Amino acid sequence: MFIERVVHNVCDKIVKSKLLQCSVRLKHTKDLNEHRAKVMGRGLPERKPLPGVKSIILVASGKGGVGKTTTAVNLACAMKVIEPDKEIGLLDADVFGPSVPLMMNISGEPMLNDDNLIEPLLNYGVKCMSMGLLVSGENAVVWRGLMVMQALDRLTRHVAWGPLDCLVVDTPPGTGDTHLSLAQNLPIDGALVVTTPQSAALQVTKRGVNMFEKLKVPIIGMVENMSHAICTSCGTKNYVFGNTTKDNARQMGLNIIESFEVDQNMSDCINSGKPAIYALPDSIHAEKYRHLANKVFKYIDDKDKEQIKATEQ
Ligand SMILES: Nc1ncnc2c1ncn2[C@@H]1O[C@H](COP(=O)(O)OP(=O)(O)OP(=O)(O)O)[C@@H](O)[C@H]1O
Ligand SMILES: [Mg+2]
């Protein structure tokens, strides 16, 4: 109880005063681990909807550095571009290494509204929230277990997300506390699995897919990133990382919804805070992100129709 109270207070302080120096040292690591195992061992709690949020889509992969955040950022922006009347949100659930603020070009301390909820920051018409806006990166990396769960609770239930048609959630690499916590606590409509073609990445991706199956999170499909490079002089496609994604996707029973080649412009755009969908709207990448956004909208639509049908029967 003591540890839980300490963790709770720490998170509350961060949210309320947006402290940039979080100097908590948890002394009883053993107690914390035991408590965490107990909490996680209670089985699947009820997945409570986020007030005012119609659907939630995860962007995930077991592997790091494959382009999850690039995909999540461009997807959220593309959804806003093709359906400007819809409200889209982007949650950076990577509390260890948040990169949404950089890629969405957002900064500054978020404000609290009259209901004591954090107001998301808006850019490119997308409502964004990230731990990177609340604590400095150095502090975020010490967070583990329960603290991660508390932090995610604050980023989801203590943010004024609604009204939202879709919340896109960028997740950290791995298959750890964050994924478990999100899948256990939120009604996730579907996950997009991002991978690169290297066999190492595909192996780890399989672990991620297994995790989602166990957690009963439906997988919308696979996004292959950095599929190949095109020679700038002769236009030849070079499969520098191999060309086995299709076979692996088939084995996992997944469709590849879209493939994105390696492109320096993509990287330059996203790292300068102007996603390709806006910086290079006529590029092949922007077109593919619009296609991906369309697929996600259709997936959500079909799911809604199925639910309506099920309740009518
Ligand atoms: N198709 C692409 N072409 C060129 N560069 C890309 C492409 N996709 C992503 N990148 C670059 O690769 C790097 C890693 O991308 P990103 O941060 O999106 O990966 P990630 O999976 O979110 O990483 P992490 O696991 O650390 O969160 C970034 O610098 C990004 O600009
Ligand atoms: Mg990332």
TrEMBL record:
GO biological process, one term: iron-sulfur cluster assembly
InterPro entries named in the record: Mrp/NBP35_ATP-bd, NUBPL-like, P-loop_NTPase, YlxH/NBP35
Keywords, alphabetical: 4Fe-4S, ATP-binding, Iron, Iron-sulfur, Metal-binding, Nucleotide-binding
CDD domains: Mrp_NBP35
Domain of life per record: Eukaryota
Protein's UniProt keywords contain Iron-sulfur: yes
Entry protein name: Iron-sulfur protein NUBPL
